Amino acid sequence: MGVFFDVSEVFQFAIRIEENGEKFYRKVAEKAEDKEIKDLFNFLADEEVQHKNTFSGMVKKVEKYEPSETYPGEYFQYLRSYADSLVFPPEIEKEMDCRENMGCIIDFAIRRELDSIMYYLETKSFVNETQHKILDKIVDEERRHFVRLSRLKARLNKSK
Predict the structure, then answer these.
(1) Which of 49, 44, 12, 50 is nearest to 27 (CA)?
(2) I need a surface site. Which of 17, 49, 55, 78 has the fewest CB within 10 A?
(3) φ/ψ (deg, to 5) at 126
(4) What does DSSP assign to residue 101?
């Protein structure tokens, strides 16, 4: 018999990703001297709060779902590992060691946005189709974050 999978737990991981992202972006904004960088990272932090609220609302509406798996708990284990180790990992402070090189921090943020996009695309297979539009909206926002960070990086590279 398969293991019943609670989709709300996928959203709990998404909430954790958004909380860690907010903390990271706030810390960068605090340390940034450039107004454009400070404003962008504060904006990104605010967006993470909105995403967290969206996922919190989704947790309240989820239905039980049982994904097809090779072994019980396979996909849930994959998502948990992905959320805990790749997207805004707990040891995020190590990445802040490159604080004197804003390009390094922006590169880290770009990678996290891409990782978030992949995570949310993966979670779509677990949720009711009625929630796909909400996830698509968040993925689109994460893509816009990626573009804004990439443009900032290009601007900083030009000014060197």
Answers:
(1) 44
(2) 78
(3) -100, -15
(4) -
How many distinct structural domains can be found in the chain?
1
Exposure b/e, 29-53, CB count within 10 A at least 16 = b: beebeeeebeebbbebbebbeebbe
Alpha-carbon distance 133 to 156, whole Å? 35
- CA neighbor of 60 nearest in space, from 12, 117, 120, 122: 12
For the whole model, what pTM was predicted?
Answer: 0.74
User: pLDDT tens across 19-36, in order?
Assistant: 888 988 998 899 888 899
CATH number at residue 72: 1.20.1260.10
Per residue in 107-122, pLDDT (tens digit) is 988 998 898 898 888 8
- Specify the amino acid at residue 67: P
5 — phi, psi (to 5°)? -110, 125
